[in-house]
Write a structure and sequence with these properties.
134 residues; single chain
């Protein structure tokens, strides 16, 4: 039994470390690199075709999703939908201009920097969306 104890401890430590690394770096990751089509709006759908805007949106709209219930308002009418043949994600930026974005119609959100929020607002402004939009 004494010979098995170091092995059991090693396995337990390995499992704990592996779980921690997975949780920190990979769990609930949102990526937008898959998208081949990007739309803004819902009732008045506008397709984004500018390559620079697409590249910037893909950089901005990725990160780790957190469960939250912020006081910011969100609307599906003012959203960015990224999709390909298999997958679709809707990003709803906070209407008050805060650097938080709701994922689909859920309680999951990604936080972006204020600089990224400014870039997002500039891109969406080209397509008629102005923030704050309350």
């Amino acid at each position: 039994m004494k010979n098995k104890m170091p092995l059991i401890i090693f396995i337990a430590v390995f499992f704990i470390l592996s779980s921690t690394v997975y949780t920190i770096f990979f769990h609930n990751r949102i990526t937008s690199n898959f998208a081949t089509n990007i739309f803004v709006g819902v009732s008045n759908i506008i397709t984004i075709t500018d390559e620079n805007d697409i590249a910037e949106l893909k950089k901005i709209l990725k990160g780790r999703a957190f469960k939250d219930s912020p006081a910011c308002g969100f609307s599906n009418e003012i959203s960015i939908t990224m999709e390909d043949e298999k997958k679709s994600i809707k990003f709803c930026p906070a209407l008050d201009g805060d650097p938080i974005i709701r994922i689909n119609a859920s309680d999951r959100y990604i936080y972006i920097s204020k600089k990224q929020r400014k870039q997002l607002d500039e891109i969406l402004g080209k397509y008629g969306f102005v923030f704050p939009h309350i």
